[in-house]
Amino acid sequence: KSRGKPPQNPGAVLSWPSLSKQSTSRSSSLTPKGHGLVYSHQPTSMAERLAAAATLRAAASSGPLPAGRRAGPSSSAFFRSSSSSSPALRLVSLRAASSRPSQKAKSVGRGRSVRCMAAASDAAQLKAAREDIRELLNTTHCHPILVRLGWHDSGTYDKNINDWPERGGANGSLRFDVELKHGANAGLVNALKLMQPIKDKYPSITYADLFQLASATAIEEAGGPKIPMKYGRVDVTGPEQCPPEGKLPDAGPSAPADHLRLVFYRMGLDDKEIVALSGAHTLGRSRPERSGWGKPETKYTKNGPGAPGGQSWTAEWLKFDNSYFKEIKEKRDQDLLVLPTDAALFEDPAFKVYAEKYAADEEAFFKDYAEAHAKLSSLGAKFDPAEGFSLDD
């Protein structure tokens, strides 16, 4: 065969096996030269140029060669060697370079997956966002609503559903209007307004991570325990992925203890975790215009801090401690709120074991609360990396 004879089908895209076969039978095949794929002679006819372009397109889109068939030490080196080829091949090389998938591409050639090298959220930006949240807490006293924001994003989880995001949980869906308008989320639009400037400032973090970061930071800044959090939650992408309404607990069901178990067992939480998490009511107030529960104001809330009004569960409603359990047990102050689901903690025999323990031992409460909060914050989440990451490593 003559060296200059073009292939029979110059427009065909050659597969890797055909490349390998040609390399032993034709002197005009693709061969290793320098650090990339080049022709052993310069194509001169239009047919050869078309064949070269088709072959290089196949090389650019098929990913790494199978073992034993690599034409060069690395795909990136391919473009450095383009200067040794003809102008036509250099043009093909440039086009291949401009169209090469990024690291975040879903897949390339032959169905192989390429894992995104970056985590769902950037750790450095999360740490910086945490400092901004701390400053926000100091200036606006928004601890309770930020705790509620994180809880309500994750509290829609259903352990009986395997698929993400259908299973609900901590996935950032609460940022969409359709979910914000759920009855249980009344007022949380104000929390989103507080978080949005931070999200805009740090675009490389997810809403799912930001909501949980804000919730945990609010607990810690109010004097509560350090929460062993992990990050890397992936966001849902649209409102059609929001959970249906009715996943969160009611304040005044007819059978409070049964209702709490129905909701929290669905999330995979147990009696101890239900009681420990209820202790977060040591923070915040209930506003009748939002929940239908509580007084318009009390001696503890009429002057703020923050917007005045509402009824709190504790006298110092911006301090995280075990006073919630003490007040619920004693019921001595009519200005403090006791919901049916609060009273159930001392009325139900299984709940009462833990409620009595936490009323007497703040250290035990803090330990169990920190573990339960961390678990709640990860419910239903999809992490990237899969194991998540800590900001305190």
UniProtKB/TrEMBL annotation:
<dbReference type="GO" id="GO:0046872">
    <property type="term" value="F:metal ion binding"/>
</dbReference>
<feature type="domain" description="Plant heme peroxidase family profile">
    <location>
        <begin position="146"/>
        <end position="393"/>
    </location>
</feature>
<keyword id="KW-0809">Transit peptide</keyword>
<dbReference type="InterPro" id="IPR010255">
    <property type="entry name" value="Haem_peroxidase_sf"/>
</dbReference>
<keyword id="KW-0408">Iron</keyword>
<keyword id="KW-0376">Hydrogen peroxide</keyword>
<dbReference type="InterPro" id="IPR019793">
    <property type="entry name" value="Peroxidases_heam-ligand_BS"/>
</dbReference>
<keyword id="KW-0630">Potassium</keyword>
<dbReference type="InterPro" id="IPR044831">
    <property type="entry name" value="Ccp1-like"/>
</dbReference>
<feature type="region of interest" description="Disordered">
    <location>
        <begin position="59"/>
        <end position="82"/>
    </location>
</feature>
<dbReference type="GO" id="GO:0020037">
    <property type="term" value="F:heme binding"/>
</dbReference>
<keyword id="KW-0575">Peroxidase</keyword>
<dbReference type="GO" id="GO:0016688">
    <property type="term" value="F:L-ascorbate peroxidase activity"/>
</dbReference>
<keyword id="KW-0479">Metal-binding</keyword>
<dbReference type="GO" id="GO:0034599">
    <property type="term" value="P:cellular response to oxidative stress"/>
</dbReference>
<dbReference type="GO" id="GO:0000302">
    <property type="term" value="P:response to reactive oxygen species"/>
</dbReference>
<feature type="compositionally biased region" description="Basic and acidic residues">
    <location>
        <begin position="286"/>
        <end position="300"/>
    </location>
</feature>
<dbReference type="Pfam" id="PF00141">
    <property type="entry name" value="peroxidase"/>
</dbReference>
<feature type="compositionally biased region" description="Low complexity">
    <location>
        <begin position="17"/>
        <end position="33"/>
    </location>
</feature>
<dbReference type="GO" id="GO:0042744">
    <property type="term" value="P:hydrogen peroxide catabolic process"/>
</dbReference>
<dbReference type="GO" id="GO:0009507">
    <property type="term" value="C:chloroplast"/>
</dbReference>
<keyword id="KW-0106">Calcium</keyword>
<keyword id="KW-0934">Plastid</keyword>
<comment type="similarity">
    <text>Belongs to the peroxidase family. Ascorbate peroxidase subfamily.</text>
</comment>
<keyword id="KW-0349">Heme</keyword>
<feature type="region of interest" description="Disordered">
    <location>
        <begin position="280"/>
        <end position="311"/>
    </location>
</feature>
<keyword id="KW-0560">Oxidoreductase</keyword>
<protein>
    <recommendedName>
        <fullName>L-ascorbate peroxidase</fullName>
        <ecNumber>1.11.1.11</ecNumber>
    </recommendedName>
</protein>
<feature type="region of interest" description="Disordered">
    <location>
        <begin position="1"/>
        <end position="42"/>
    </location>
</feature>
<feature type="compositionally biased region" description="Low complexity">
    <location>
        <begin position="69"/>
        <end position="82"/>
    </location>
</feature>
<keyword id="KW-0150">Chloroplast</keyword>
<dbReference type="InterPro" id="IPR002016">
    <property type="entry name" value="Haem_peroxidase"/>
</dbReference>
<dbReference type="InterPro" id="IPR002207">
    <property type="entry name" value="Peroxidase_I"/>
</dbReference>
